[in-house]
Specification:
Distance between the termini: 150 Å
Low-confidence stretches: 20-80
Largest sheet: 5 strands, mixed
Mean pLDDT: 78
Number of strands: 14
Strand order of the largest sheet: 1-11-12-13-14
Radius of gyration: 44 Å
Structural class: alpha+beta
Shape: globular
Helix content: 10-25%
Strand content: 25-35%
Number of helices: 2
Order of helices and strands: HHEEEEEEEEEEEEEE
């Protein structure tokens, strides 16, 4: 009986020990699950460097943003509407005080017609220079919106044209836009000469009219002569002449060119 009691006690102890081991495993498993729930995927545990690596989506987004920044320039340079002709300064009839060419279009006898696109405020136009028919010189302002063209007034004390109204041999016509009074609507400068001793200059303004087909919006504001070239400086026109540094000077004031009296 004593031996039987000892065996029963031994079996009881084994059963209790086994039950305690299973309970401990369950507790450990429960703690591990709870730990994972406290730190879901995508969040970083302290001291866990493996979570510092961005996800594939984050890498793609970063790369895309960098590409967009590289493709978009920080500064966009705006080019002027009409660049000056690439011609030697000695051939230029319209220059800046720094002796740079300002002419934007040029026509010489024997060459095809040339066109200079223009914009007066919101009105689009084209200046066409060339040989007229059956003779003469063509200097026409065309307004595409109405298919109307107005011949520029090239009158004045000038010797650049022959008896038929054509340019003298060796002469050329150049033109450029310049806003003398900074009102947002440029004036048109037309010059004709031989770059030596003979030069004619005309300046035209644009006025908004009700009917371009009936009313000429282009008005001649100035008609003068010079020798080799003119200089444009802000609201001023300077026409040098002679070899002694002399010049004629005109200033655009209240829509009128005025010549100072000394």
């Amino acid at each position: 009986m004593k031996k039987l009691a000892i065996r029963i006690a031994f079996i009881f102890i084994l059963a209790v020990t086994s039950a305690c081991g299973k309970t401990s495993d369950k507790l450990n498993t429960s703690q591990a699950v709870q730990s994972n729930e406290e730190h879901p995927q995508g969040q970083k545990n302290k001291g866990d460097d493996s979570l510092n690596i961005p996800s594939d989506n984050e890498e793609t987004t970063t790369t895309s943003n960098n590409s967009q920044q590289e493709a978009t320039p920080n500064h966009v340079e705006t080019q002027p509407e009409h660049a000056a002709l690439d011609i030697p300064t000695s051939d230029s009839l319209i220059r800046s005080p720094e002796e740079k060419n300002l002419s934007q279009v040029e026509w010489k006898p024997g060459e095809p017609d040339v066109t200079l696109p223009l914009r007066f405020g919101t009105t689009e136009a084209e200046l066409v220079l060339g040989l007229d028919h059956p003779n003469g010189t063509k200097a026409v302002m065309i307004f595409p919106s109405t298919s109307v063209g107005w011949q520029l007034d090239l009158s004045g004390d000038t010797g650049v044209f022959d008896e038929y109204g054509e340019l003298q041999e060796g002469y050329k016509i150049q033109a450029a836009l310049h806003d003398f009074d900074q009102d947002g609507i440029s004036e048109l400068i037309v010059t004709a000469g031989n770059s030596i001793i003979d030069l004619s200059i005309w300046v035209y303004s644009f006025t908004t009219v009700g009917d371009l087909q009936k009313i000429n919006p282009i008005k001649q504001e100035l008609s003068i002569t010079g020798q080799r070239y003119i200089e444009i400086d802000g609201d001023e026109i300077i026409a040098p002449y002679g070899s002694q540094g002399l010049f004629d000077y005109y200033k655009y004031v209240d829509k009128v060119f005025m010549q100072p009296v000394y």
